[in-house]
Every structure is written in C-alpha cells, then in structure tokens.
Amino acid sequence: MDNIETYLSEILEIPKDAITTCSGFYVSKKVAKNEFVLREGEICLDTFFVEKGLLRMFSLDKNGKEHVIQFAPENWLISDRSSLNFNEKSKFYIEAIEDTEVFILGNDFFTKMIENYPHIAERNDLLLQKHIRNLQNRVNSLLADTAEERYMNFIKMYPDILLRVPQWMVASYLGITPESLSRVRKELARKNFEIS
C-alpha cells in the first residue's frame, strides 16, 4: 500500500474499499533533487503529499538569505496555505532536497473528499488545528527558546531527517548560524558523554 493510501485510510479514516475511488482526486509526480514545485511570486494551486523523498519550504529575505520554514519528509503535506486559500502570490519556494515522489492534491481535494465522505470533515478540521498549534509552537520557540532547546524541538519534530539535510539548512530552520549549530551539537554531545 502506498503512503497516500495509508494516510487516507488511517488518518482521514476513508474506508479501505473506497481508497481506489479516491485515487481519482490526486496525481503522482516525480520531482528531481533541487527542482521547485513552487516559486516566490507564483500562485500556489496545490498541496503536496510526500510519498517518497524530502521537500523544504523557504523564503528569501532582502539580502538573499534563505529562511527554512518547513521540511516535509515522507507522509507529510506541504503547501503555501495563504497563496492556496486566498489566491495570493506566494512568498515562498518549495524545493526537493532529494529526488522525490509527490502526490499532488488539487485546491478542491478536501472539498471533494468531504462531499464523498462527510465524516472526514471533523478529521480534516482536527488536522488543521494541529497544524496551527505546531506553527504557534514554532513561532514561540523561535522567540523564546535557547538554540539548544530549538535543536531538541527540531529532533522531536523531524527525528528521521538529520542525516538527510545539510547542516546549514537545519541552522536556517532554527534561526541560528551553522557555527552556532555546531557549538550546540558539541555541547549536547559533551553533556551526553558526561551522563553516560
């Protein structure tokens, strides 16, 4: 079973005998490493479900510095919700960090799903609320937590991607320099060594 099918049956609670019907609501696309599925200034028309691989969303400031907003490994959804829902030009880029396979969920994907399976409206609302909670926690962490605390939060959020993501991207996500990230990692290693 594909990850998308597992997502539909286990997360959205679509009956297993209806999964095949749902496949008409999305399309598969292979995205090469360093290829973009969204660029700043474009209107985001889709949500991307990562079947295999890894995407990242980032913005560029006026000096050309990248700020990583989100990573999306397998089983994650990623989209620019402001652009998607309000037809605004995107302020973000979404790029493949690895060769990636995505399922493209059109703007009306969840509307169609709810029309066919009304019970998922509540599940979808819960997922949206969790997403908002995670964004609030991330903003608070950037404002209030130490670099070490932010790094530990990153490991909890993305336990399986540390070896797949360049350290400078992790530092960008954490809002610190690569040098600061290196110090944080050394300090954590020292503390763990002392505890052992």
Describe this protein's structure:
The protein is an alpha+beta fold and about 200 residues long. It has a domain at about 5-120: Sandwich (Jelly Rolls), CATH 2.60.120.10. The protein contains 8 helices and 8 strands; from the N terminus they run H-H-E-E-E-E-E-E-H-E-E-H-H-H-H-H. The strands form 2 sheets. The chain has a 4-stranded antiparallel beta sheet, with no helix packed on it. It is globular and about 55 Å long. InterPro entries: cNMP-bd_dom (IPR000595), cNMP-bd_dom_sf (IPR018490), RmlC-like_jellyroll (IPR014710). It comes from Kaistella chaponensis. Pfam families: cNMP_binding.
User: How many separate helices?
Assistant: 8
The CATH topology of the domain at 3-119 is given as Jelly Rolls
User: What series of H and E elements makes up the topology?
Assistant: HHEEEEEEHEEHHHHH
Categorize the overall geometry: globular
Mind summarizing the main beta sheet? 4 strands, antiparallel
Tell me the Rg in angstroms. Answer: 18 Å
Span between N and C termini?
A: 41 Å
List how many beta strands DSSP finds.
Answer: 8
What structural class results from the helix and strand content? Answer: alpha+beta
CATH homologous superfamily placement of the domain at 3-119 = Jelly Rolls
Strand order within the widest sheet? 1-8-3-6
Helix-residue proportion:
40-55%
Q: Low-confidence segments, ≥5 residues, pLDDT <50? A: none
Share in β-strands? 15-25%
